[in-house]
Amino acid sequence: MNYYSKLLVFVLVIQSCAITKGSENTNVVEAVKMQQAVLDDDLFYKIIKEMDYENSIDWSNGRLDYVNPEELSNYSNNGSWLIDQYKTVGVYNIDEVFLWSKWNPFSSTTAVTNKCIKSTKLNKHNLDRTKYSILNTLIHERVHSFCVIHPSQQSKGQECDPSYIVGDLAQMLALYRDGKDLSAFENELCDGLRSKLLKYNILTK
Ligand SMILES: [Zn+2]
Known about the structure:
Elements: H1 3-17, E1 20-21, H2 26-39, H3 42-53, H4 69-72, H5 78-88, E2 97-100, E3 111-112, E4 120-123, H6 131-145, H7 162-177, H8 191-199
Parallel strand pairs: 2-4
Antiparallel strand pairs: 1-2, 3-4
Bound molecules: zinc ion.
Zinc ion (ZN) binds at residues 140, 144, 150, 163.
């Protein structure tokens, strides 16, 4: 490879890794706005509380290792702490959402959020999806901004992880409120979440 070809490859790689603003994608802008309706939805909190009370949220395997234990000890359970984070710290504003391209365009990674960092990066290769699905990612990633982690990067088998539960719950509530067909929901649901959605008639079967 001559000098100019090498330079071209270098420039292309750098460009594809470049981080840009979330505001440049209309679906991302929509999804960021939709987060507020989740925060205003009593069912969002009620379902988290009930699931936590029934021990259907998996907080094990070091998921809370980076959360300040003193802070956590002020709450009777982890679910109440999480709810309080959404109520006090809140969700992402558009300036905290960035876009970047993962080096592997075939990766299923939707986003990366460093634990305890108040911004997130969505993978540009995985933005060809609905605003509801992007909303799911934002609500999920926010849990990592609150310092909660999960042991594996695969959603499969982690459906009852707190971040997956709140993301899926937010997406289901948004679809339901907009009168959309919930059977088109593409993720496996945590059993505990499925029973709550049935209980509150958000899912019918
Ligand atoms: Zn995650």
